[in-house]
């Protein structure tokens, strides 16, 4: 057992993030081997000591600290993850812990080791559907595209993978540079094809399409922004909005269907580019910490961006994977510009975390709630869609064969939902049964 508990000192040492973040992202690092409290240095990252340090931190900085159990022994748990999963509040579907390497690869460098695609793993006609493919990845080089349906992977049919619960390493192979799998798939034209995909380092992109469409009601912009609000996103967004602003659209269709969140600083840039002069210097969101740390509350404002738009309406394409910083964009812009949501209800995360590092692990525990300029942030059940369209991955980005995009374009031209979508039936999933947040955030990438 630790010889000394010093909650405030532990929290002060741990709370080292430079930026507050709306989902698991950001954070700082320490050069020390461990905190020294009251003259007693903890052992070198033993599991019991880690558990106690993290539990002390939660008691101080966790938004729902009142819900933590009062009579447990944190040091009795076999891992920090086991402890966190057991003690977190029933209101919290989101807090988690990962290694510092995993954290840095996703949020800072935007890279991972794999084939370079994201799958929708709900089996459809004995296949997995590709949500998106990263540029210059093994999957891209093999010719795979959004909407392709994988029917076999590495010799296993999708039915076998699902029914026999075959593990990912068996299906996708070891993490070895150059390891190759063979897949058979059906493309969006209905052709059955076979190709080989080579595993390697993947530099992820978050902008997948940026275009301006000329319609009878004027120019309509389209931006597909997926896979997180991460460090490399800033340069991608600036480039995309240079293209969009040149077309002078009066409406923007913002596709956030598979964007689970990320850095508030990136949300601030995206929101400012979208809102332009209309929102400049207005409040995007205010972060409200627990009653022990009200002095940490902060406000993020829209700012001036060179490639800003001047739109009258923002149309956002959503699913239950639209989460966190993505929802902050919807909720933050809504007081100033007409916002229309099309698709299905978002994930419901009006809360965020300031990730902390200790012993080569990074914990993202809920620290604050987020409200917009009107003080609204009560969307724990998600932000509902005004035009309900269930996501169907049947075509590439910006194709009118994609029913969700097509509905967005219809609304831009008609200022209403199409008759068939006005009261559509949504495949609603209760919050407690929704996909694991880490799966939403990392989007089943391989």
UniProtKB/TrEMBL annotation:
Gene3D superfamilies found in the cross-reference section: 2-enoyl-CoA Hydratase, Chain A, domain 1, 2.30.42.10, 3.30.750.170
Every PDZ domain range: 108-166
PANTHER family: CARBOXY-TERMINAL PROCESSING PROTEASE CTPA, TAIL-SPECIFIC PROTEASE
Alphabetical list of CDD domains matching this protein: Peptidase_S41_CPP_like
Keywords, comma-separated and alphabetical: Hydrolase, Protease, Signal
Keyword presence, Hydrolase: yes
Organism superkingdom: Bacteria
SUPFAM superfamilies reported for this sequence: ClpP/crotonase (SSF52096), PDZ domain-like (SSF50156)
GO BP term, example: signal transduction
GO terms for MF: endopeptidase activity; serine-type peptidase activity
Signal peptide: 1-20
GO cellular component terms given for this protein: outer membrane-bounded periplasmic space
Protein's recorded name: C-terminal processing protease CtpA/Prc
